[in-house]
Specification:
Blueprint lengths: L1 H9 L5 E9 L5 E6 L12 H11 L29 H7 L2 H11 L1 H10 L16 H4 L10 H12 L7 H10 L2 E4 L3 E10 L2 E10 L2 E10 L11 H16 L3
Antiparallel strand pairs: 1-2, 1-6, 3-4, 4-5, 5-6
Helix pairs in contact: 2-4, 2-8
């Protein structure tokens, strides 16, 4: 009994914050950096931001509601909300993995690799797991593709500054897909959550008047979170949105 109690007492706090990073989108000046923001981890569903830019630039994605693809048995169905016809808006809102996979397959391997390299996205490794041939279906989910919070911030800043080799429509549609939150202080926050392998992300940008801030928040679960029903990425977003009015005063 005593040994069990001691083991429970030794469990780490839930969702340890690994990094909080905020910068001015225009100048790139870092306004806040806390924790380890240099280590690369899986981007998980934050990679949907990149897939969206690729898809709209290539014409694979057409508007907010096209193409609408039916759910097919055998697709990734970790959540009940994924088991139905999905369009780009629903894809981003519910973070539907199989829609990402179908979009990347439509791009094709060579074009997908070229976009990742042109975006200078993390380690640019979309090979997937050794011997699994799953680079186009899951390299961004706890697999070969890795990115640090600093690299996430640089990528988002390029989106805000429109410095990536994609069309104006790709920027416009991707911004429209990303959920906006109105926060105290007049900040409008556009962000994307992501979580895999015990890591949780929230990345994006926030606008107020003429100011634009880019941000990245990364958390990590410990053993105490094993039975937590709320996905890590959702918790990362909720925590950051609660703190953002104070953080953006930096």
């Amino acid at each position: 009994m005593l040994a069990g109690l001691l083991a429970l007492a030794a469990l780490p706090a839930r969702s340890t914050t690994l990094c909080t990073l905020i910068a001015d989108a225009g100048s790139g000046a870092v306004l806040l950096e806390q924790g380890d923001c240099a280590t690369r981890v899986t981007p998980a569903s934050t990679f949907k931001i990149a897939i969206s830019l690729m898809g709209y630039d290539a014409g694979v994605l057409r508007d907010l509601h096209a193409p609408a693809l039916p759910f097919v048995p055998g697709y990734v169905d970790w959540r009940d909300s994924w088991k139905q016809t999905t369009d780009p808006s629903r894809w981003m809102k519910y973070s539907v993995v199989w829609y990402s996979q179908q979009t990347v397959k439509a791009l094709g391997a060579q074009r997908f690799q070229r976009y990742v390299q042109a975006f200078d996205y993390g380690n640019q490794d979309v090979a997937g797991d050794p011997g699994q041939h799953n680079g186009m279906t899951g390299s961004w989910i706890n697999s070969s593709l890795r990115i640090s919070p600093r690299e996430q911030l640089a990528f988002v800043r390029k989106i805000v500054q429109r410095q990536l080799p994609v069309s104006a429509r790709a920027y416009d549609m991707t911004a429209a897909l990303m959920l906006a939150e109105q926060r105290p202080g007049g900040w409008e926050v556009h962000g994307k959550i992501g979580g895999a392998g015990g890591y949780g992300w929230y990345v994006g940008w926030a606008l107020q008047g003429g100011q634009t801030r880019v941000f990245a928040r990364l958390i990590q679960d410990g053993p105490a979170d094993a039975d937590n029903p709320t996905p890590t990425g959702i918790r990362a977003g909720e925590q950051f949105l609660q703190e953002i009015p104070a953080l953006l005063k930096q």
